[in-house]
Amino acid sequence: MTKLRPTSSLQTHLCFLLFLLLLLISHANSQSLQDREQAVLLKLKSYLQSPPFLSHWIPSTSNTSHCSWRPEITCTNNSVTGLSLVNTNITLPVPPFICDLKNLTLIDLSYNYFPGEFPKAFYNCSKLQYLDLSQNYFVGKIPDDIDSLRRLRYLNLARNNFSGDIPVAIGRLQELRNLQLCMNEFNGSVPPEIGNLSNLEDLNLSYNVKLVPWNLLSNFTRLKKLKTLCIRQSYLVGELPGTIGEMEALEELDLAINSLSGTIPSGLFLLENLSIIHLFQNILSGDVPQMVEALNLSAIDLSGNYLTGPIPEDYGKLTKLTVLALSYNDFSGEIPTNIGRLPNLINFKLSNNNLSGTLHPDFGRYSELESFEVSVNRLTGKLPDNLCYWGKLLGLEAYENNLTGELPTSLGNCSSLSTVKVYDNGLSGNIPSGMWTAPNLSSVLMSNNSFTGELPEKMSWNLSRLEIRDNRFSGNIPAGVSSWTNLQVFDAGNNFFNGTVPQELTSLPSLITLYLDQNKLTGFLPTDIISWKTLYTLNFSRNQLYGPIPAKLGLLPGLAALDLSENQLSGQIPAQLGRLKLNNLNLSSNHLSGKIPIEFQNAAYDRSFLDNQGLCATSPSAKLKICNRKSGKISSKYLALILTFGILLSLLALSLSFFMVRAYWKRNRSDSNWKLTRFQRLNFTESKIISGVTENNLVGSGGSGKVYRVPVNRTGDVVAVKKISNDTNLEEKLEKEFLAEVKILSSIRHANIVKLMCCISKDNSKLLVYEYLENRSLDQWLHKRNWPSNLTSSDHHVVLDWPKRLQIAVGAARGLCYMHHYCVPPVVHRDMKSSNILLDSDFNAKIADFGLAKMLVKEGELATMSAVAGTPGYFAPEFGYTRRMNEKIDVYSFGVILLELTTGREAKDEHTNLVEWAWRHFEKRNPLADALDEDIREPCWLDEMCFVFTLAIRCTQRLPCDRPSMMEVVRILNRCGNR
Ligand SMILES: *[C@@H]1O[C@H](CO)[C@@H](O)[C@H](O)[C@H]1NC(C)=O
Ligand SMILES: *[C@@H]1O[C@H](CO)[C@@H](O)[C@H](O)[C@H]1NC(C)=O
Ligand SMILES: *[C@@H]1O[C@H](CO)[C@@H](O)[C@H](O)[C@H]1NC(C)=O
């Protein structure tokens, strides 16, 4: 074999040469492929105008250098197979030549501002398997031939503005594993053919709030490989199919916030792999399946339905369970004991049911409990002692039960603790002393129990609500109270507190409500009131206080309710009190004397001064004697003095305003740059908006700004623009907060919340751009204001009949409920009123103007007080001038809207306040039907209308805790609508 024949040697040489040649050619070929790819990428770079983030895309001698252009490029065998341009602020259309990169299998263009329709250019990427276009500005329909991308395994079109139907063609993408379509503008239907995607593992259609009501769940149950099925808040109706129990692979089921009805199929709880069930806020009813074999379940949230029967014993076998939320249902019977020993339970929520029996003492002992909520049931016995055994507990809510015994000792050593709500029980004993100093403690609501002991000197500085009314607390109000600096509500009425009112109490800067009535306090009231800038309610009635009424009370800018009745106060009523705008004044049963300030000498204060022997009035009044006139003339010397002083003052004011006006003009000329803050895809430019804000387009104006109807393009799209102007430049902090809130609001999609598209701002004005709703606001229909010109008032009766009004009530309630209960952190509206409820062409309610305008007002700023203090007739009694408000103020205002809907009356006219009127009617036990709107009072609707009227009464209770939550309101209204 070693000896070569010449011929064969020649052959070998030839072969070798040929081989070399081939190698050369093929190399040249592949080189040209790589050069081509590099050329395409460089073209892409220049198409994108060479943005800074692509500065490392530099061609070099090595023809595969582009394979190292990370993170945008991935190569396989020196050929580009992946292109990721994620979160790079691109605003240009998708380049039409993108698929000149023939080997692309992955394209990720998420988090940009790509405009236009779904780019068919992708069809040229015949190997494409992974396409992510989420969070862009794409519009129009998903194309009917999208199945051209037949190799697609992953398709993410979430958070765009795609509309129309979801095409049948999607059901032909047989390779698809993952389909993400959440948060778009689809306003058509979903094809049953999605059920043909036999390889699908993950399907998300959540938050498509404009879909036509639909239910294809029985088709989807054929997806035997599906692990995740999320269709939250997308207008699902009808029942859950029994075949859902055949989806063997299912791990996560989230169909929350829809209108699913009927019972929960027993098969669901038998699915071995199931780990999450979210079916909260539907209208499911009936008993829940008792047999549970899905031992992998880690979260069950069925809250806000109408489920009945006992809680299954079997839940106690779910050792992986971390969340058990069954609140707001009609469950009855006892809580199975073994649930108390679940080793992984973190959130336990069973509030608002009909549960009875006792709580197992082991709760908290075997798992790192964070929330424990069992309020509004009929539970008896003690609270479990170990609730904070692991030091993780954030909230304990057990109000409105029949619980007895002491608070759990573990609360005394629980640094995580933030909320304790145990009011309306029969609890007793002292408070574990360490509880007061838990650093995050912010709300302690324990009214109406039998707690004893004294208040501590030192308290968590985070504490904002302390409500301990109707207990047996005793001792002094400690001087250390001055360190409770964040306290907003302090209600300690009806206890055994004694001693004097410490001067330190007056230094609390955030206080809104102070009740210390019905105690044994004695001595003088503190005279030097320095910090109560935000105090709204002050009640010291039924104590043993003596001495004068401090004149400085008259300087409290926000005081609206003052009750000092049934004490031993003496002396004159300080004239300064007359400056206050008091809704409620009670100085009865004291020893006051002298003249009543002239401002109080009218019928509104008829009952404010009873049983004070020495008081008199200057004008005749039925209840008070007349003062005998004595002094009153001012000497001419004083008059001259006052005059000179007055002239001096006005001169000063004049020159001051001159400078201010000049400064204002200067500033206005200097800032002409509008800044656009957008969080969504827009099909218009900011200049369109700015030029559209003209008198011609003005459609309304209110306390917080003017509203314009602005056409934005030739296709007839219209937006609503709200212009808010402030007189002063905003502080940077406030500006930031404002934009943060804009961001939250514009990310929210809910069928009953007006969509905020963007905010355009200049130093001292802001333009908030919203979707435009053609039927405008509820108050216009209800109170016949500013009729749309094409309507006559006789249309009014036809249009806003009771079913429509109920539909509006339900919609608005759902919107509010979402903001209160499903946003983290919760969003409080702060200015609910019928003019903020807008109506679309089908009279669906959408809530507008979530608290933004209000934010621009500085805390405690006097001049703008009226703007912050809400709209007369709508704001809750506890309303203060602070931006940190409890969501129950919205519940109150919503109650007022329910009253408007049922009675047809305005929230406030010159004479009456609707809430007061309705409560009088209610308390006198007049027939409810007499209060209802005569225009729509048809016999067949009477029951429903009375029912909603009663709900309105509940919502407008004086004490926030007596009002239902919006979750409960939705439940009650849903039931009403379904009867
Ligand atoms: C890239 O595509 C070319 C044809 O265009 C093909 O010859 C080559 O094998 C592909 N490379 C890879 C890594 O798929
Ligand atoms: C996109 O824009 C934001 C805000 O202007 C900026 O912070 C960010 O760096 C930009 N990203 C890129 C990749 O250019
Ligand atoms: C959807 O499901 C229904 C009922 O199960 C069935 O009759 C229908 O053929 C299905 N549609 C498709 C397209 O698979």
From TrEMBL:
Full protein name: LRR receptor-like serine/threonine-protein kinase HSL2
Residues that, per the record, bind ATP: 723
PANTHER family, sorted: LRR RECEPTOR-LIKE SERINE/THREONINE-PROTEIN KINASE-RELATED, RECEPTOR-LIKE PROTEIN KINASE HSL1
Record-annotated Protein kinase domain positions: 693-979
Gene name, Swiss-Prot/TrEMBL: LOC103340864
This protein's UniProt keywords: ATP-binding, Glycoprotein, Kinase, Leucine-rich repeat, Membrane, Nucleotide-binding, Repeat, Signal, Transferase, Transmembrane, Transmembrane helix
Homology family: Belongs to the protein kinase superfamily. Ser/Thr protein kinase family.
SMART domains tied to this protein: LRR_TYP, S_TKc
Subcellular location field: Membrane
Pfam families xref list: LRR_1, LRR_8, LRRNT_2, Pkinase
Signal peptide: 1-30
Transmembrane segments: 638-665
Matches recorded under SUPFAM superfamilies: L domain-like, Protein kinase-like (PK-like), RNI-like
Entry keyword annotation includes Lipoprotein: no
PROSITE patterns assigned to the protein according to its UniProt record, in alphabetical order: PROTEIN_KINASE_ATP, PROTEIN_KINASE_DOM, PROTEIN_KINASE_ST
